[in-house]
């Protein structure tokens, strides 16, 4: 297939690379043009595959995927930039950006007017999941459109789930981030307590990791948390963006999210420490700083 991928960050670049490996003709666009050129070199595709504009990238494409930063970025490209009007009628548009359900529904309506198929399909699994083709993809939209997209999504998705109509994929991603926020603060407090109590963290983790306390975060982050290493993974500033979206939606639907709201405030303190680009497990750094100041 002739397809286009817009947004070559730490997630988008390897995801687009999987499409090349699957044998598709891929054109890419990135706001920082040098990143698109570097992507072509890395994945062994001709330099002309790095398009100078989003409109040129999607020209003639049967499918287009986006992996951008936030709602304003998606709105600027698709709606303000009139990208929907530039796409081929009947083409499939897949938005992997973590954004609001409200914007996803707006795009779905506009896509229908332009005779396009649209899926909101945020992902979970981080950079490692993108590089290893093992992402979890939560999809909102028409089931038939998802069936058409599955071969493409399977290039980088290990778990592809149809959640419901347009916007449902974004809502499911909000659930994912709400759960992660609470789990990370719980893990940070547990490890912080173990250190304060003079326990061997490795022995404690060995004991609890086979029981009800086990989680992906515990398995993959406890060692770096104890070591105070956070220059990796999913950035605090991006998690705060995701929590903002979830908390805004909660105000709309009446859900009560006291833990998510609290963790967002705690992340604000981490940012104040200079940790905006630290991994989300850096909640541990805040606690250890407080312990050290006592």
Can you walk me through this structure?
By secondary structure, the chain is an alpha/beta fold. It is 55% helix and 13% strand.
Secondary structural class:
alpha/beta
User: What is the CATH-assigned architecture of the largest domain?
Assistant: 3-Layer(aba) Sandwich
Query: How many domain regions?
Result: 2
User: Which stretches are poorly predicted, pLDDT < 50 over at least 5 residues?
Assistant: none
Q: Which H/E pattern describes the elements?
A: EHEHHEHHEHEEHEHEHHHHHH
Which class of the largest domain in CATH terms?
Alpha Beta
* Form type: globular
CATH homolog superfamily of the largest domain = NAD(P)-binding Rossmann-like Domain
**How big is the Rg?**
20 Å
Oligomer: single chain
Quick one: how many beta strands?
8
How is the largest sheet built, in terms of strand order? 2-1-3-4-5
């Amino acid at each position: 297939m002739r397809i286009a991928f817009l947004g070559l960050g730490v997630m988008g670049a390897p995801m687009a690379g999987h499409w090349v490996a699957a044998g598709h003709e891929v054109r890419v666009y990135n706001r920082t043009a040098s990143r698109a050129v570097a992507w072509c070199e890395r994945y062994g595709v001709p330099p002309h595959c790095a398009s100078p504009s989003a409109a040129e990238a999607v020209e003639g494409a049967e499918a287009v995927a986006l992996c951008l930063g936030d709602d304003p970025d998606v709105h600027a490209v698709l709606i303000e930039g009139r990208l929907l009007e530039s796409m081929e009628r009947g083409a499939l548009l897949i938005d992997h950006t973590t954004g609001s359900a409200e914007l996803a529904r707006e795009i779905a309506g506009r896509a229908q007017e332009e005779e396009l198929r649209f899926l909101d399909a945020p992902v979970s699994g981080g950079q490692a999941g993108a590089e290893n083709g093992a992402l979890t993809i939560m999809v909102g939209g028409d089931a038939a459109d998802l069936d058409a997209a599955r071969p493409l999504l399977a290039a980088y998705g290990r778990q592809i789930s149809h959640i419901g109509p347009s916007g449902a994929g974004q809502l499911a991603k909000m659930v994912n981030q709400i759960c992660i926020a609470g789990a990370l603060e719980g893990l940070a407090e547990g490890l912080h307590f173990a250190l304060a109590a003079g326990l061997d963290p490795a022995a404690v983790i060995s004991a609890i990791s086979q029981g009800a306390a086990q989680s992906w975060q515990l398995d993959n982050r406890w060692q770096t948390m104890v070591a105070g290493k956070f220059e990796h993974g999913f950035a605090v500033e991006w998690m705060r963006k995701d929590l903002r979206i979830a908390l805004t939606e909660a105000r709309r639907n009446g859900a009560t999210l006291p833990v998510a709201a609290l963790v967002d405030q705690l992340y604000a303190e981490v940012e104040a420490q200079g940790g905006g680009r630290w991994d989300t497990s850096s909640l541990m750094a805040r606690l250890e700083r407080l312990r050290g100041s006592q």
